[in-house]
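Late entry, evening session. Most of the bench is empty. Finally got around to the prediction I had been postponing all week. Sequence below, unchanged from the version circulated by S.P.
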Amino acid sequence: MAIICPKCQHENPEEALYCSKCAAPLKSAEEISMTKTIITPKESLQKGSTLAGRYKIIEELGRGGMGVVYKAEDTKLKRTVALKFLPPELTHIPEVKERFRREAQAAAALDHPNICTVYEFDEAEETTFISMAYIEGHSLKKKIESGPLDIDEAIKTAMQVAEGLQEAHKKGVVHRDIKSANIMVDERGQANIMDFGLARMTGGTLLTQEGTAMGTIAYMSPEQARGEEVDFRTDIWSLGVVLYEIFSGQLPFKGERDQSVVYSILKEKPKPITDIKADIPVSIEQVVSKALEKKPDKRYQQVEELLDDLKSISAGIVPEEIKVRLRKAKLHRRKRVISYAGIAGIIIIASVLALSLFTGRAEAIDSIAVLPLKNQTGDAEKEYMVDGATNELIDQLSKIGALQVRSRTTVMQFKGVEKSIPEIARELKVDAVVEGTVYQLGESVRVTVRLYDALPEERSLWTETYDRAMTDVVVMYSEMARSIADKTRVKLTAEETARLRNARQVNPEAYEAFLKGMSHWYKLTPPDLDVAQQYFESALEKDPNYALAHTGMFFVMHSRSQMGWVPPGEVIAKARPFLLKALELDNTLPEAHFAMAAMKTWNEWDWEGGEASFLRAIELNPNFSMARVYYSMLLSHLKRPEEAITQAERALELDPLNSMFMAMYGNALILLGKYDEAIVMARKAIRTSPNDPAGLSILWESFHMKGQYEEALGAAKAFYTGQGLTPIADVMSSGYETGGYSGAMKSVADTLAAFSKETFIGPFWIAFAYGFTGEKEKALEWLEKGYEIKDPSMPFIGGHGVINNLLDGDPRYQDLLRRMNLPTGK
């Protein structure tokens, strides 16, 4: 007799508990729920008590809708067992008890390493129980709670479960309640299927939320939900749910109430697991998808078929049937696009095809600039937040190796500049430009971004508005990056996709403090570094596990040391713990690996370790221009100028208006003796930033090496004046009056040496000054002092032409290079 759904009037089979059309319950909670009694098992057995004259109770293992399970010792056979009790209120129902016995016997007939062995069915002291093997380990569900399994482990576990089911099905046993909680994994990683036949006996697969969790309902096949007859294919469906769970860490069908879960099982397609975890092979997704076909006839018909596919994938082979399904799916997508277009008529189809085939860009865009986002908060003091939004979007896009992303320093020079999109694109040598606005709405932020194909003329490709809580801003920017990659036709690697998908929430107050800290750190003046440190400390007070704030603390301290303002040992001892903590919190953070590279290179003089960390930072963020230019400096120290130039060139492609990068390029040119080219590059840096110390230093050194001492003197004065050291420039002028260029250089070196008695000055920079005077003994004296305190600027002796030119033939200098493990010779 059919049951009419009270909600939608749909006819359902007599045994159905939920409507197959709308998923509404067809019976009252009292009729379909046995949970109020099922979860109240017999009073607990006492530890040490003996049951049936042979089972000594050791401890209770767990309780649930199926009763209670105890760990016990079989004193006759001297083995540890698990005793599972039929709930006492069912013990007195003859048909239930008989079915329990028959199904226990069927399970006991199964002998397979992936099926928990059932020893016997017994009755004692008004209880009915099953004695089975005790498995030391955890349920697969508990294992998944700590995150999805890695691919190899997941495939191995899936194959073991499938092999256990294969054996059961051969013996005519349908489990009917396959779920991750019913699969135990022992200490060797071996999976064991538990509870054959028990759930069906009690109707436990349809328990309501009144008395038990939704776990079992989430694994029901559609035919189970409709109350239809089930066969082996219902186990295949439930195994498909388990596969989805172990690969993605999530259930495919979810809801707050059982009705919504059942509706999802009957009506909705689950999200593809490759959308949840990008590194999952498409072939695995196809296996899961076929196991979860809603119509049994479309599923795997035998578990052997599913197992064969898993074995092939495990061996690195994509099964032919899966290849066919993938080709069909691709063809179906194409047909669907055409059919949708056909709704609008043949003329529209022709227009769309003409536009897509004969206008615009045919190839993927491979270079892009994010212009400074505009502050629409109405609060000028929120500028740091808007600049932070620009930086974060640049950082997220920079993780895409196939896309050249212009760096922050360059794009910030267009802040407030009124130029057209094509003009900016030509100046930056990019194909596409992103611009946008930032609003703040209470505790939320709204960002509107627009993507333009910029050349030969401006063409809008995409516009989107994002409204998110401040906790989700980093996640939001990663979503933007993925969308931009899609619109520019850039292909992401599996690792890049995973990194973008793994963006984490942030504490809003900590994030705000971090952004303010970075806005000061970029200025690299002593007062700004002090303020930056205060903000980073505030960020860590709000969130002690904020990896970027730990990295920020390291950079503040390292910057003071690198610039020779404080003794290096004093600072690095305090800075190192912040860096190590950042890496502990997030080992995929490019900035942390860059920081490690800086520490290993300039503080520990570990060239191999420094190079490895630079390469790791660049691997994690191929557009990390700062990492590339500093790596070029290390290569210069190691006298590998050609490689240094390659990295500096790449950095300049990404950040073409960065004056420091231009200067570092010039430094590599000096090593090659290309002084004229170095001068051109240094002048370009100075035009971009008139007081750029690195550019002025390269200009000074290049003119000196060419013997153009008047020009060198002018560059040297500008170098010290630009840093606010006008007294040094004045001393240089008086020294020049009495001793010419040599006198000017000596006056500077002597003055710095005298100042160092009152305030800390990095010994390298004093040695560098003596390098221009030609005083070998003085230069060597200060280099030795730099070596003693591990001055972080000492590695530059491997890359500076003046020092090398003066001391190259001196055995003491060669010995110093060897002690630092730097290359000897020019």
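Two things to note before I forget:
Residues 29-42, 197-215, 330-362 have pLDDT under 50 and may be disordered.
DSSP finds 37 helices and 17 strands in the chain.
Will write this up properly tomorrow.
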